[in-house]
């Protein structure tokens, strides 16, 4: 009986506006409250430790086109990548906590960084497609080429 009474009620425009205002206020207040796990840790100015060979370990993610973002350990010496290893923070012995290992594309991304064919500047094709004739753009030169009349 109560359900039929509830279903037969009419909603006025005023009731709809009041309900919308209440929902908006609730959303606004929920954004103002910070939860303990929502705060970000501040980076400290501590130097990165080096091992006996002068190598430092940096942590990164694999950014090839598969989309899984596998964790990587990048070993750097003299600001140059020496090798890339998989992240070994998790223990495979614990059931359900498996280590995510990057594929060979991710582990060989060092060659992509230092490839002589890597495009480092904005370029414009001069000839036909596939000929490989490219000119380097300098400064704000490409802007008029992109404008349409």
TrEMBL record:
One of its GO terms (cellular component) is outer membrane-bounded periplasmic space. Residues 55-117 form the 4Fe-4S Mo/W bis-MGD-type domain. InterPro entries: Mopterin_OxRdtase_4Fe-4S_dom (IPR006963), MopterinOxRdtase_cofactor_BS (IPR027467), Prok_Mopterin_Oxidored (IPR050612), TAT_signal (IPR006311). It is an enzyme of class 1 (oxidoreductase). It comes from the Bacteria. Pfam families: Molybdop_Fe4S4 (PF04879). Keywords: Iron, Iron-sulfur, Metal-binding, Molybdenum, Oxidoreductase, Periplasm. GO terms for biological process: anaerobic respiration. Its EC number is 1.8.5.3. Gene3D superfamilies: 3.40.50.12440. SMART domains: Molybdop_Fe4S4. Its cofactor is Mo-bis(molybdopterin guanine dinucleotide). One of its GO terms (molecular function) is electron transfer activity. This is Anaerobic dimethyl sulfoxide reductase subunit A. The gene is dmsA4_1.
